[in-house]
Amino acid sequence: MGIMKFAPEALKNLFKKPVTTTYPAEPAVYPERSRGHVAIDVDGCISCGICQLSCPLGAIKVDKKEGTWDIDRFDCIACGYCVEKCPKKCLSMVSGYQEPGREKYEDKFRRSAEAMAAEAEKKKQAALKAAAAKKALAEKKAREEAEAKAKAESNAEAKAETDGEKKTAE
Ligand code: SF4
Ligand code: SF4
């Protein structure tokens, strides 16, 4: 009874190609959404370090001053937290796995000089804008204080005049 159940499947498989492949001779085809490894568009990175803080394995190192982003692929478990947390969306999880190796090493990425210069300029402009806003606020405050002082003096003068007139009438 059991044989009769499996016989059609067994016969079908006799004429099918093997489902296994000859990897690595034949390149692997990964499913579209497989979590292979983390990729970075390094020029989109602002070195905020959120990925480094969110990595449970401590596999990422961010150096803001140097503009570098390093990952130890041997420590990475492809959980995708860093990809989820990146505020600039410059990290992504792509297919294709880490090549095996005898020694651990880090993959290093460095932001281009143009990207670093553009960010420095952006920061400079933001600092100038903040300084101008601070100056305008201080000027406004000084103006308001001067106006309040002038008003108080004028009120005091008016009161003194009124008091003087009352005394003369008495
Ligand atoms: S995928 Fe997970 S383990 Fe790998 S670097 Fe990102 S946060 Fe760390
Ligand atoms: S979270 Fe994104 S922007 Fe921030 S350091 Fe990591 S990769 Fe760069």
From TrEMBL:
<keyword id="KW-0411">Iron-sulfur</keyword>
<dbReference type="GO" id="GO:0046872">
    <property type="term" value="F:metal ion binding"/>
</dbReference>
<dbReference type="Pfam" id="PF13237">
    <property type="entry name" value="Fer4_10"/>
</dbReference>
<feature type="domain" description="4Fe-4S ferredoxin-type">
    <location>
        <begin position="67"/>
        <end position="96"/>
    </location>
</feature>
<protein>
    <submittedName>
        <fullName>NADH:ubiquinone oxidoreductase chain I-like protein</fullName>
    </submittedName>
</protein>
<keyword id="KW-0408">Iron</keyword>
<dbReference type="InterPro" id="IPR017900">
    <property type="entry name" value="4Fe4S_Fe_S_CS"/>
</dbReference>
<keyword id="KW-0830">Ubiquinone</keyword>
<feature type="region of interest" description="Disordered">
    <location>
        <begin position="143"/>
        <end position="170"/>
    </location>
</feature>
<keyword id="KW-0479">Metal-binding</keyword>
<dbReference type="InterPro" id="IPR010226">
    <property type="entry name" value="NADH_quinone_OxRdtase_chainI"/>
</dbReference>
<feature type="domain" description="4Fe-4S ferredoxin-type">
    <location>
        <begin position="36"/>
        <end position="65"/>
    </location>
</feature>
<dbReference type="GO" id="GO:0051539">
    <property type="term" value="F:4 iron, 4 sulfur cluster binding"/>
</dbReference>
<dbReference type="InterPro" id="IPR017896">
    <property type="entry name" value="4Fe4S_Fe-S-bd"/>
</dbReference>
<dbReference type="GO" id="GO:0016020">
    <property type="term" value="C:membrane"/>
</dbReference>
<dbReference type="GO" id="GO:0016651">
    <property type="term" value="F:oxidoreductase activity, acting on NAD(P)H"/>
</dbReference>
<keyword id="KW-0004">4Fe-4S</keyword>
